[in-house]
Write a structure and sequence with these properties.
It contains seven helices and 16 strands. By secondary structure, the protein is of the alpha+beta class. It folds into two domains: about 220 residues, Collagenase (Catalytic Domain) (3-Layer(aba) Sandwich), CATH 3.40.390; about 120 residues, Immunoglobulin-like (Sandwich). A six-stranded antiparallel sheet has the order 5-8-3-2-1-11, with no helix packed on it. It has a five-stranded antiparallel sheet with strand order 6-7-4-9-10, with no helix packed on it. Strands 13-12-14-16-15 form a five-stranded mixed sheet, with helices on both faces. Helix 2 packs across helix 6. The longest helix has 21 residues. The two termini are about 30 Å apart.
Amino acid sequence: MRTRVLVAVAAVATLGTTMAVTAQSASAAAAGCQVSYTISSQWSGGFGANVAVTNLGDPISGWTLRWSFGAGQAVTQAWNATVTQSGAAVTAVNVSYNGTLATGASTSFGFNGSWTGGNPVPTAFTLNGVTCTGTVTPTTSPTATPTTSPTPTPTGSPATRTVRVFWLKPTDVTYDQRYPDGIAAVMREAQRYYRQELGKTFTLNNTVVEVVNGEHDRNWYITTNCTGGDHYWCVVGNMHQELMRRFGIANPDSRWLCVGEISAEETNQSGGGASTGWVVLSGHDADGAAGVNGPMNRWYGGMVHELGHAFGLPDSTSTDGTPMSASFYDYPNTHFSQAQKNAILAGPYGGFLA
């Protein structure tokens, strides 16, 4: 397999030693709206949050969500909404592509923020002036309650000319719904970003993430088929081979562009990356997507970067403001160059974009 090193891998150890990860969530409901506010990650002085908005009233063509922070928190960066703040009061307004919400429809946005004395979940929200009433109960759950692992979701070949996504769970890893949900959210955000940049985007399947019960434990994926002392590619290489064999997928495959993530990693040794037609990522990326390892914009930008490789782009030779360089850390404030857009559309998977 031809591989490309993920630019961000060298920074993972530093992130892991400085972050105290928590997961807090709250929701409020009313006749007209429902809001879910989730603290996806938290570290000294900063945090990442995701906000999901569901319209329970009449269809709307634009929305404004308001809330107030209770402990001096401040929004520092946002995506999928225009977020402003005056004192404790925060206002989030839709962007061009997510303002229309039918009855029962949902959208989401995310942001990074700062905190000093505390970071409690907001207790009330309004959507277009309508109070989303209900009991808001903050919860802290660094480790989700394990549930019984389901059988693998793949039951047949999904539609062709789509992006096919897998989460491979080794035999000694407890099933955790945050992983398929989180990886799906990262893929949907990448889907949105590609439409923003190219005017076209890829198609995801109805089951966005196919959960695969692996054939081996974590240690097997980490230590098997390694070359000497270099374990960087062992985990993702073993996952890659298993997925291709079990689901009859080639490398590359003209039917699908494939993304595989595995919940296994040797600390400071395992990595991931992409080549034409495939993205293969190890444990820290799966953890990040699930909201337990770092601010979400880093994982959104990382997926956009790796998908760029899968669509045929090389790394940039400098930090040039495009997601094919270390500028993906600044996501969503990074953009493909015109040359990169042309190369994606003219590349081997350009025909997948519509």
